[in-house]
Amino acid sequence: MIPHFLPRMKNHLLICCLLMLSMCTQNNKPVAKKSTKPNIVYILADQLRAQALGYSGDPNANTPNLDQLAAKAINFKNAVAVSPVCTPYRAALMTGRYPLSTGMFMNDLYLPSEELCMAEIYKEAGYKTGYIGKWHLDGHGRESYIPKDRRQGFQYWKVLECTHDYNNSFYYANDDTTKLKWEGYDAYAQTKDAQDYIRRHSSDEEPFLLMISYGIPHFPHHTAPPELKEKYPLESIKLRPNVPEWRQEEARKEAQGYYAHLMALDHCIGNLMKTLEEEGKADNTILVFTADHGEMLGSQGESPKEKQRPWDESIRVPFLIRYPAVFGKEGYEVNAPINTPDILPTLLSMSEVSIPSSIEGEDLTGFISNDKVEDDRAALIMSVYPFAGYDGGSPFRGIRTARYTYVRKQDQAWLLYDNLEDPFQMENLLNNPIYQELQKDLDNTLQAKLKERGDLFLPKEQYLTMWGYEVNTERGHEIPYKAYETNVQSPKFKPNTPLDISSEE
Predict the structure, then answer these.
(1) Domains, the chain
(2) Would you tell me the crossing angle of helices 245-278 and 186-201 to the nearest 10 degrees?
(3) 86 part of the active site
(4) What pTM did the predictor assign?
């Protein structure tokens, strides 16, 4: 089957394909050949905002390897996290479904095995699957062993549910119930393990899907490698202009470790790319680099460590995807927003794997192949039940287009930004007469998105009742994340179809 995005291919790639076909039928004898399906290496950072990279223009960032990748990759400039916090993002990524379809709208919930997930789909398509690092989808306790039947199709397994103790980090290996310790700074050790996995499987007939899920640059920031922190004297750190003066001292202290963690992450990415090149796998590998959500670092006056906000520092994430065998080796940008549920169907399409009907996100390969980078769409963003540091905050629903951000609280419009004219989102255009028609159009688009998803935007407490969750009010309305298996919080509410929303609502 010829991919529908074939117009992107270079002419010499077509010639190479014909030569390969010829080699496989030399002398009319069948020649054994490896799968032509691409390998997939998916790199997921934690709490890395889109603005914090060298190629994004951050003056603090020292990210030469990621800058090099961006120069050779498809850069979705407006990638957003559908719900900017760990577990909701990861559930949406694995399933291609929205948080209110799976019930995964808070941290430390259990993603039920009934959900059809990324690795299960790829395994059915003939892929070997592997996962290294942070999981945060099991809900049985952050340090508990995760048995095979709860790994959502991943075979090779070196994982801990959740930790950010980077210099004292543990994991479980495959079916061994012994808790093991990563040597030194865990991101470096996890990278070495991923490199070994690539080397071991580089000559296999079957393609592989490998996910590397790093904990960095998520706080605690001060635990970054000291030799990297030294490169960021506090007085040299440049903050975004939307950080108010009263937040700046605290923001610089956090930013020092944040950018040091990021330097370490960049080093890891460089090693992974080098290994793919050395093994001859770089061209026929879909390499993805992204993050689950961003971090405010003092912007808009918010706490430096916070997410769960509708501002770009929280919702926008890097999203680089490289597949030279089909899309060539020259990088280019796509303005159309890609949302978390869109990632899985887009990845499946690029791999020529059928997209299951359960997936709610959209295949965005068309935005890659049609050369119309000015094309736009609206990506839905949401916070269903704010918790932890934001438990007193307002739930929200909103949309992010290539140009505009529009957000509502439950009973009123809240934010409207022109992100091209105002990239730091310092002027709320809400109820400005000049933008009255635009605001109306954006609101109509948001309402249509909510209707499509069956989202009534109810008071936040009703979602706890609906899904049968209990929260720990002494810990900021969090799901009790040290739950034992007998009281795991998994979704009880299972809507078969979107809820009906009348036009009056």
Answers:
(1) 39-369 (3.40.720.10), 379-487 (3.30.1120.10)
(2) 20
(3) yes
(4) 0.91
